[in-house]
Amino acid sequence: MALTKMVLSSAILVGCGSQDSPSSMDPLALLPEQIDGWTRSDSVAIYDRETIFDYINGAGEVYRSYAFELVWVVTYTSPESPAVTVELFDMGNPADAYGVFSYSREREEAGIGGGYEHRGSVLCFWQNRFYVCVASEPGTAGSDQALVDVARAVSAELPPGSDRPNLVRLLPSEGLVPLSERFFHLHPTLNYHYYVARENLLNLNIGTNVALGRYQPGDTYLLIVSYENESAATNARLSFRRGYLPGSGSSRVVATENGRFVSLLSYSRFVVVVLDAESADQADRLAQDAVNRLYDSLDWGA
Amino acid sequence: MAQEQAGLTRRDFMKGVGSVALGVTAGLPSTAFERPGQADTSRVVLIRNQDVVHGVRDTDGALVQQMLDDAMVALFRLADASECWKQIIRPDDIVGIKTNVWHYLPTPPELEQAIRRAVLDAGVSEENIALGDRGILQNDIFRRSTALINTRPMRTHSWSGVGSLLKNYITFSHPPDYHADACASLAELWDLPITKGKTRLNVLVMLTPQFHNIGPHHFDPSYTWPYGGLIVSTDAVAADAVGLQIIQQKRRLVFGEERPLQPTAHHIALADTQYHLGNADMSKIDLVRLGWEEDSLI
Lengths: 302, 298
Hints:
With 302 residues, chain A is of the alpha+beta class. Chain A is built from ten helices and 15 strands.
């Protein structure tokens, strides 16, 4: 169903059927009518992959770089406080809900969904296939607690389950900088987090899964990419070697012009890249550690 | 050239090759009275007033009018602002004022109206002036326009590094068509039949610029600051390059370290080096500073 922006009333939605597909889901069933002194509006605005730009200028592409399907927007009002807006993003699957949460996360707290970030006048969390943001007008008295209260109440109505993507869990923990883990699919997102090249050297596409982490010592990045099959992984490894490590033969570790080191390995349908390692040894160990974890974990379906 | 740039890697920047190719001076790819080609230098006026804003979307209309007038006089070096406007707008022009309606940080209505008044004063009839952003392709004035005035606030942007004057023309087309490679080809928007050769003035709003993205809409007012500035030029590329320098310096000060934009705003440098739309190289920009000088960051 190709939706344009729609505003639905609860009366229209009463009696909607299955909750399985987003287009038939009743978002109001997931959003409590009353939360303490807050009352939910009867209407909900809906934006899909095509109309997201009408609602979120610019950042719309961020959602579209994941399996984003719809966002529902409702307002909660209180006689004594400014309105609170709740945005319920259906990200298609839990991995992508985590992915969009991790996209620009700078801090994270536990206790709501799979984790939440509260900065300024916005609180966002992810849970199951949903990414949820609760926002108030900034600087309003008591709004911080209101955001937490509303977010907890919404979380209680959403399906449980917030396991991070397996690929992210495969990032070696030793030296991993807290909150540096990202999960995504596309080349522009890789360049957002770590500029590699204008060309899509790793053949990233909507079907590839990427886990990225930053490591200490130094400012080293580890990239694990999961491809559809081993052939695709091999092609990507060769493409990256041609484009980023020309003339390096089959060397596992290559020194770069900034005095750092790159390591490139592939295993089964995965490619592992270490970037900006402090030493050849660090590059090699980190890449091998990741491959070992992949080897031990293949039956997770990572 | 295009083929070479398509393959630019991080290692090219380590070698310095990328910096030269993209016309930037350090690190990763960081930085229009229309004319057929680039001028040798581009004049850009940066004017600031510490009292012009009291917060995001809280602008003193009288001061903004004064700033715009002063900037025009400095830009065109004529005796008064109305004479300057007559240099760029003819009474028989059909004028589209391309603004920006983004809810969180729109072009201030006070500035929109100051521009509109100036166009009226230049002799254009009211029915031949339109203000618009989304939906301008369906707007008869924009479709028939002979002159464009381009104005919007400067902000960091999650897909193009910054949203500024070059990006403001994206609603003249289908926006996703220009999203590849961090919107590297935005300068092509200026070559569309509806825009080509029409832009007479660019006003980059630096009243409360945004220097960092957070949240679902990638905006929070805590990452704006009262800079109180306007950047005015006939060269959109040069104006954007100046604005970009200010944003990058603000990020250095606030974060206490080099925090490159994510993604890098290389569309601005490419507008110079690849598309030859204007000057992004600061050595080719004649920057005229007016007004409040404290913490100008450039």
